[in-house]
Specification:
This protein has about 325 residues and is α/β, with parallel strands linked by helices. The protein has 11 helices and 11 strands. It starts with about 25 loop residues before the first helix and ends with a helix. Mean pLDDT is about 85; it is low at about 60-70.
């Protein structure tokens, strides 16, 4: 009925009032949304699911400090007794329950007690699981990761003591016993440390500790991410880099640079120095061998040159 104001939503006037707008939504809807995201960022895409799974696995892995190594286990009665005898650092000794004791077991237990190491008793299946089925003979020694120095720390420590740095760098030496022998020679002839590459090289394992005969406790070992760059940094700091090579330009007794700040680079017995490291050296020298041997292992070669350096410095 005309004029009935009680009807809902009935317009009682022909004049238009304020209208509710879109708030700019229509205008914004016409704007572009930017470039299409990569497949790995698109929800539901197979590459997005793979990326999420990879991130989940990475987050689930245990965190490790940059440059830190992993713990190591020494297994077997002879190995454990010898490691404890030689002062290899350890955190605990695992002993099998109801172990048949002999002289090696008694020596290992006594050495662990003297050093204040925790003795952890465990059933044989647990030790089998820890060692991956190795023949542990009831004794497992836990060795902590080695705390490597930075290559620059070795030269800095020598200079702080008012001495010319005497450093040995190893290129491609993969036998930890050779590394231990080099550490022992560096300690014997007054050197200031050893540098090893981070990859494809021996590290300070229990075998290296044993070969060093305890000298690894006072002779630092540094780890270089890139050995060539580490040598270049030494050169910029004023150190002379001498590389050992069978076809070297001079013999060690003629190298006057051994009197001053020097880095002696030793390669592997089979391959020698790598190309980049060889090109970085200021001088390549050879060890005279009148007996006719073709080469020396890294431990022996380093000892010969370190002796010559110590003789000149004294």
């Amino acid at each position: 009925m005309a004029g009935n104001s009680q009807r809902r939503n009935r317009r009682t006037s022909g004049k238009k009032g304020m209208q509710v707008g879109s708030g700019g939504q229509r205008r914004r809807g016409l704007e572009g949304k930017g470039p299409t995201p990569p497949a790995s960022a698109r929800k539901g895409h197979i590459k997005n699911r793979l990326a999420n799974e990879k991130a989940r696995r990475a987050a689930a892995r245990p965190k490790r400090r940059a440059g830190s190594g992993s713990s190591e286990m020494v297994v077997g009665r002879n190995s454990v007794a010898e490691a404890l005898r030689e002062g290899v650092p350890a955190t605990k000794l695992h002993v099998q329950q109801y172990i048949d004791s002999d002289e090696r077991v008694r020596e290992a237990l006594q050495a662990a007690v003297d050093r204040g190491l925790p003795l952890m008793e465990a059933p044989r299946p647990e030790l089998d699981r820890m060692t991956g089925g190795l023949n542990h003979q009831g004794l497992v020694l836990q060795v902590p990761p080695y705390d490597y120095a930075h290559p620059e720390d070795l030269a800095a420590a020598a200079l702080d003591d008012g001495e010319d740095p005497l450093i040995v760098a190893l290129d491609g030496v993969t036998d930890p016993r050779n590394l231990g022998a080099v550490v022992r020679s560096v300690s014997a002839f007054g050197g200031h440390g050893v540098v090893v590459p981070e990859r494809r090289a021996a590290g300070m394992t229990a075998a290296a500790w044993k070969t060093s005969a305890g000298t690894a406790a006072r002779t630092p070992v540094a780890r270089a991410t890139n050995l060539t760059r580490a040598l270049e940094a030494y050169q910029k700091a004023g150190l002379f880099v001498v590389g050992l090579a069978a076809d070297g330009e001079a013999e060690i007794q003629d190298v006057e640079a051994l009197d001053g700040p020097v880095v002696i680079v030793v390669g592997s017995e089979g391959k020698g120095l790598s190309r980049l490291v060889s090109e970085t050296c200021d001088l390549r020298v050879r060890i005279p061998m009148p007996g006719g041997a073709e080469s020396l292992n890294a431990g022996v070669a380093a000892g010969v040159v370190l002796y010559e350096a110590a003789r000149r410095r004294s």
